[in-house]
Specification:
Elements (H helix, E strand, L loop, with lengths): L1 H15 L4 H4 L5 H7 L3 E6 L9 H14 L1 E6 L7 H13 L4 E4 L4 H9 L7 E4 L8 E3 L3 H13 L6 E6 L5 H16 L4 E5 L7 H5 L4 E5 L3 H14 L5 E4 L3 H9 L4 E4 L2 H16 L12 E3 L7 H7 L5
Parallel strand pairs: 1-2, 1-3, 3-4, 4-5, 6-7, 6-8, 8-9, 9-10
Antiparallel strand pairs: 10-11
Length: about 325
């Protein structure tokens, strides 16, 4: 067990060394393209104050910026899911020298209103949640992802209900994952209940200790990590299913605290977001396919194909 845990730590260290080979093959002509265009400034506004949750995405963004000649500015709100703070950042960046904005919206409705009123003044790339008015979205099929995670949960669902953790109700992408899971579970005759919490895990312990609980599902990396840490500290055996695989998430998967997680290549998402943003800044039309997702269990994370996607390494 200790050897496996050390392997997870080593993989996490490798992730911090630089960018992955996952996307580099997609743009073999990137160095030549860098010479052809003047530098552009890309501002990235995240929705979580904990930047470790976006570490691999940031690696992808930084590699794309380096290869394609962009100046990258990373911004985080004072608190997680601070929609008003995000919009203040958006207006401030748009009034400055930024060429294009990349945002993971905390308040999707608020962002749509701002875009409808042309408050941005530059192209917008939306991460995680498709938004009306955004020029481009880089996100997996959230509803299908939630349904696939629910299918994994059905393999060991008991006679009780499945708790669906809602921590970001204003995020359309996260809400779509939860709704996809709910529909799949209820179509299979499994009862569901929504448990309201937030990204700090407020009230989460009480939700996890419900006596009629057969499984718990979380739909974003932050609350997946919170639920796993609490489940472990409380000594609970309720199956837990989550989203995203961070370094901490991989350790919980390896120990069996998380039964399975729906994941995608964060590095690829970050790279493609900056690539698309730069194309928009140059006035080009951009079409983006949805990044694929996969369901991973603890025994899978040491497979080469998952290591490449989950723990990107500089090439």
């Amino acid at each position: 067990m200790r050897k496996k845990r050390n392997a997870v730590i080593q993989l996490a260290i490798l992730a911090a060394l630089g960018a992955a080979v996952v996307v580099t093959s997609l743009l073999p002509q990137a160095p030549a393209r860098r010479e052809a265009y003047a530098p552009a400034e890309v501002s990235v506004i995240l929705r979580e104050s904990d930047t470790s949750l976006w570490s691999n995405a940031r690696l992808g963004m930084e590699q794309a910026a380096g290869e394609l000649g962009a100046e990258l500015r990373m911004l985080t709100p004072a608190g997680s899911n601070d929609g008003a703070g995000q919009l203040d950042m958006l207006r401030r960046e748009a009034a400055g020298q930024t060429s294009v904005l990349v945002i993971a919206p905390a308040d999707c409705a608020g962002l749509e209103r701002a875009l409808a009123q042309r408050e941005a003044g530059c192209p917008i790339v939306s991460l995680e949640s498709p938004r009306e008015g955004a020029a481009l979205t880089v996100a997996p099929d959230n509803a299908a992802l939630g349904a696939a995670l629910a299918q994994a949960a059905l393999e060991e669902a008991g006679s009780g209900f499945v708790m669906l953790l809602s921590a970001s109700p204003d995020s359309a992408g996260v809400a779509a994952r939860m709704e996809g899971a709910r529909q799949a579970l209820e179509a299979a005759g499994v009862r569901t209940r929504v448990g309201e919490t937030d990204l700090s895990g407020a009230g989460l312990a009480g939700l996890l200790k419900h006596p009629d609980l057969s499984a718990v599902m979380a739909f974003e990396p932050a609350i997946t990590e919170q639920a796993a840490a609490l489940k472990n500290s409380l000594g609970l055996d309720v199956p837990l299913y989550g989203v995203g695989v961070t370094a901490a998430g991989a350790a919980w998967l390896e120990r069996g605290v998380i039964s399975a997680a729906a994941a995608w290549s964060d590095f690829a998402v970050g790279y493609l977001a900056v690539e698309g943003a730069l194309a928009l800044a140059r006035g080009e039309r951009v079409q983006m396919e949805q990044p694929p997702f996969f369901i991973v269990r603890g025994e899978d994370i040491y497979e080469p194909e998952y290591q490449k996607l989950l723990f990107p390494v500089t090439g």
